[in-house]
Amino acid sequence: MTNKGEEEPERARRARLLRLFETLDTNQQGQLDLEGLRNGLKRINHPLQNADKMLQDLMDICDTSGDGFIQFDEFVVFMEATEQHLRGLFNAIDRDKNGQLDRSELAHALESNGIKVEPHKLQAFFDRLDKNSDGQITFEEWRDFLVFIPQFGEDGLDPGIRAIYSYYLATVNVNPEGDVTLNDDLFESIGFFLAGGAAGVVSRTATAPFDRLKVYLIAQTDVGQTKGAVKMAAVKGEVGQLAKTATRPMRDAIRALWNAGGVRSFFAGNGLNVVKVLPESAIKFGSFEVWIPSHVVHELFQTVKLKYLLGCQAPFCSARGRR
């Protein structure tokens, strides 16, 4: 291991790469095919061991001769080019130039590239790189995790922080069977819609008795008589009679509904209300929550104006969704 910011001597680097190549070469053939590369990565417990597509991409990049094998010289060329790019990115992220990356520097690099990461996901990303858990990422830790990153463009490796974070997400979402699992963000988005729908159903059911009373009172035809009695009591200054007269329609409505079917009578028709409000509330709540993190300028998320605008679009989405 070199000191902070110190370049590794050529002889030491080549010796290190030879040791790594020999470790990956589980069959001791002096070259690696696709299966040999996979077995070697399993030996060092590298997350890329289960990612078949990434392994094939890595194989295609390293195998410059096209013979289906990675010879040591090809391995050295790939590793040196990759490490050079990773060193450049590491130095760019290292704002205080102390030869190590802390959590704030990693967060700043992601935010500067328009990548909004939740605090717990940022911590998981940082912990994955910080192998010895000392709160700092050395270049060796950075290099060892990212050295096999198969992110190449027409001009060679593109080691941008966006590509690195995508690589991290891809590797942590590959299980031992090689299947890619769904990202947590997808479950969170679905959860927003489900939570919105559930909240709408609960609130509609809780207020169903009031809606039932409202409909019953609207259908009454003796409203005029009640208004006259209330007015007369107010003129005479009879406070007790005024309160009794004013609340009589409500008391009569509650009594009538209770006599008609007990508690169930107060929830008559609520099933149709639930069918209506479930998708409406789900789309309102879900669209609002999903639109916020998808906005490009995430610094504006906290402003009242943007939240107001996003809140205004939610009813539009729900109305369109019901058609």
UniProtKB/TrEMBL annotation:
CDD domains recorded: EFh (cd00051)
Subcellular compartments: Mitochondrion inner membrane
Residue span(s) of domain EF-hand: 12-47, 50-80, 81-116, 117-152
Positions annotated as Solcar repeat: 187-294
A GO-annotated cellular component: mitochondrial inner membrane
Keywords: Calcium, Membrane, Mitochondrion, Mitochondrion inner membrane, Repeat, Transmembrane, Transmembrane helix, Transport
Pfam families referenced in this protein's UniProt entry, alphabetically: EF-hand_7 (PF13499), Mito_carr (PF00153)
GO MF annotations, alphabetized: calcium ion binding
Membrane topology annotation: Multi-pass membrane protein
Role: Mitochondrial transporter that mediates uptake of thiamine pyrophosphate (ThPP) into mitochondria.
Record-given protein name: Mitochondrial thiamine pyrophosphate carrier 1
